[in-house]
Amino acid sequence: MVATGMDTQADPPPTVHGRAPQLAGLTGRLDLAREGQGSAVVILGEAGAGRTTLLDALRSAWPSARLFGTCGAESESALPFAGLHRLLRAAPADIARLPVAHRTALAPALGPTCPAGPVVSSGDLGMHAAVHHLLTESATAPEAAVTVCLVDDAQLLDHASLSALAFTARRLEGTRTVLVFTAEQGPEWPCADLLDRIPRVHLRPLDDDAAEAILRDRLCRDLGTERSGQLIDLCCGNPLALTEVAEALGVEGPDAFAALPRSLPATSRLRRSIRRRLVRLSAGARRIVAMTAVDGALGLDVLLRACASAGIAPDGLDEGRRAGLLVVTDGVARVRGRLLDGVLRAELDLGETQEAHRLLTEVTDPETDRYRWTWHRAALANEDTRRIAAELDHAAALARQSRDYLASSRASERAAVLGAPGEDRARRLITASADYWAAGRPRRCRALLTEAEPLAGSAELRGAVSLLNGEIELRSGFPAAAASELLVMARQFADTHRSLAVETLVLAGEASCVAGDNAGYVATAEDAARLRTAEQTPATGLVLDHFAGMASTFRGEHGKAEAALRRVVAFAGVTEHPVAKILASQAAYTLGESSTAHELALRAVTHARASGNQTQVPWAMVYASMAAMLADRYSAAVSSSLEGLRTAQALGQRNCAIDHLCILALLSAMRGDHETATIRLDAAAHGVAERGLGRPSAFGSWAAACADLAVGRPADALDRLRPLSSGENHRYSSIRAMAVPQFVEAAVRCGQRRRAERALGSFDRWASSTGGPARRALAHRCHALLANTTAEATEHYLEAIQLHRECDTSFELARTELFYAHQLRRDRKPGQAREYLRESLKIFQGAGARHWVSRTKAELRACGDPVRGESSTGTTELTPQQSEISRLVAEGATNREIATQLFISHRTVDYHLRNIFTKLGVRSRVELAKLFR
């Protein structure tokens, strides 16, 4: 590294967890700078988000760059040129090479040490031009191909220094310079407008995997899922908070792990930083912050009434907002983020919080805002606490009816503290846990379940605890363990609580599916069958029929499965319960009825959202994507899984996120995009292996095989599909059946006809009984590949094409036509071959399947068609992936940042952007961003 203007560290590069997209984006800027496309970026993040650590990693990642740097300091923010002085003082040689005019212009920032002699001001433009020249044109050493300037804590820089650096940042086109600013997101600072129009990158809270990695690194031990989960929930994905909590536990010794902290340590740098902001507030602003913190979501009308009642100046709200403690959106004041909320509650003394509750109780109308009035009275606890607990129960029920699960969980949790001990407390804690789960707070849910478990004496309460724990384990932990635990619990309650047993078996069955354990599913179905009675409800009948039909499918008894699965689909039409519709979607999918399966899955999503229960959305989206794939609607499948991936990540459902990631990999592979499929499979690999996710693993094997076939590696594809084709332990049988067409294609291309014929036999049985016309079309294509005569192959190809057209599976139609055209060309019928190839080319072009476009063009050329240029598809509608790329461009993301977020390559981003520009008639990223803002 050529260090200029910044002290370098001899320490090893820091370990950075969870910031791969940001690092990739910054590395992409460096690559562009090498080609003369310099740029600037602002990295924004809350206090402790790891902005400085990211810059340290950049220094290590760019060893050949010529490096400048500075950082803001609060004590120097009012001192003109303090930031530039820090940058320039370590670069005397570079300054000495500048023209005299520029050296003179820099004199105010260097004082008497300036090589130009006495300080003579040349005005702001001269100073700014000199800084620009220094950072963009003074690299002389051959190895210093790129200049990098890192500006940390820009919000604390003096105005003069930031103005000069921002001037340079806006003039980097055609240079080999990258200028990176970091700034704290939250507090308002007077010079923020200087960085307007510079692209921004936001450092979001870390995901659970990255947070766990920080805890392991710092503690050098595994706390276990439950305890690490509590710490992750406390720290809200903030890297510094995680580091400081871990360091505090390490200092306190082994006994510290018996009782984990409920707030950040008092000596925490992050907590001290927040404390300083709180201390600097005026008395009125501090009271407003206290009221907002104890309320959670304080309407401005209530806040203004409280201010008027207590004689508080309402401009204290703006003071709290400028300090980065409060935000105001849609007429509601909130503390900025859960981590900050927890620190403020710990920093405010009891008198302040009690006064805040008292004020809000006085100004809240109990008739129109019963929940808030009851909540604040309960916090004061100066009357019969059990009566208030009962009122909180009522308030929680009202909040639950309006789908405000965070409010209902807080009310139930407070009622548990104020109410009677024992089972009443357990019941309230379990209720609060269920609401936290519905609100997407699995960590807090588990913490309350741990507290409730020893208090749960009745079988009903024990079952509720086990059911919630099992669902969280299924969605975020180890599904095989969840299946085992849920099955044990269902057996315990089969005789006394049948409805609870049935509900538990549904989750146990899904856990077996996610684990890829069809034998385990069949065992669960046998338990379900024993619950069948003549008096059962229709809803129970749906579940039991679903188990019977799916178990028969997994055993290969497709004819026996059909009647039960059709009953499931029929009943789902008269119920609005999301779980019933998800089960019916799976049943319809197994029957090969893709349109019905897709419609049922989307209706499950609609009803889950309408009921405020987002936790079921990622599960339903899995079947929506699978049904869309079955119907050959690849764009719809991509859209469903992109949405399912985002929702699962937001809810902390790691296993559902990996399900969707592997489906997206499979969709990429089927389009022939080997590179994107590999990126997505690599991103999922750790979670699949660590938590034993059998279904995503099987999807991954199928995807990798499709990717290998696309690039002409049939032997590798056959090896990847071998575990699926063997059927060992009855695992993955449904996915094994769906992957047979690729298995047959790979086996034929490797000359292993007998293996292909054996696999096709089982696929024929499935396709003819429950597979639908789409699967029958693929079966005919497989028979065509195995045909002994041209006439036999032609018959099967034509039948396959006819079935593809009947069920409108256009992409597979194009592939079948390509295969058939290849045979026609070998049979010396190029004219007929060209007719099929032109149709398949149009379909592949419309789908954006570049690999298949190339193969089809090559086949057309072999048939004597010159294939000049790209023909237009006649559509200006963006694909789901193109829409996502356009949205991210509007947010200022680079191609590498977009690639990392969407799990694709930057070359794929380039390709899509070219098509987006053409479709929308724009010529630049700036024009595109305007359309999506």
Compact summary:
It is built from 47 helices and nine strands. The protein is mainly alpha-helical. The strands form two sheets. It has a six-stranded parallel β-sheet with strand order 1-3-4-5-2-6, sandwiched between helices.
Q: Keyphrases for this structure?
A:
933 residues; 47 helices; single chain; 3-stranded antiparallel sheet
Kindly describe this structure.
- It is built from 47 helices and nine strands.
- By secondary structure, the protein is mainly α.
- The strands form two sheets. It has a six-stranded parallel sheet, with helices on both faces. A three-stranded antiparallel sheet has the order 7-9-8.
- The two termini are 39 Å apart.
Helix tally? 47
Largest sheet, strands/sense/barrel:
6 strands, parallel
Helix share, percent? 55-70%
Give me the count of strands.
Answer: 9
How are strands sequenced across the largest beta sheet? Answer: 1-3-4-5-2-6
- By secondary-structure content and strand pairing, the structural class works out as mainly alpha
The span between the termini is 39 Å
Radius of gyration: 32 Å
Morphology: flat
Mean pLDDT level: 86
What's the arrangement of secondary structure elements?
Blueprint: E1 2-3, H1 20-34, E2 39-45, H2 51-61, E3 66-71, H3 82-88, H4 92-96, H5 100-105, H6 107-110, H7 123-137, E4 147-152, H8 159-169, E5 177-184, E6 200-202, H9 208-219, H10 225-235, H11 239-252, H12 269-280, H13 283-295, E7 298-299, H14 300-310, H15 316-322, E8 326-329, E9 332-335, H16 338-347, H17 350-363, H18 370-380, H19 385-401, H20 405-418, H21 423-438, H22 442-452, H23 459-476, H24 479-493, H25 498-515, H26 518-529, H27 538-554, H28 558-572, H29 578-590, H30 594-610, H31 617-630, H32 634-651, H33 654-670, H34 674-691, H35 694-710, H36 714-726, H37 733-738, H38 740-749, H39 753-786, H40 790-807, H41 810-826, H42 830-847, H43 850-862, H44 880-890, H45 895-902, H46 906-920, H47 925-932
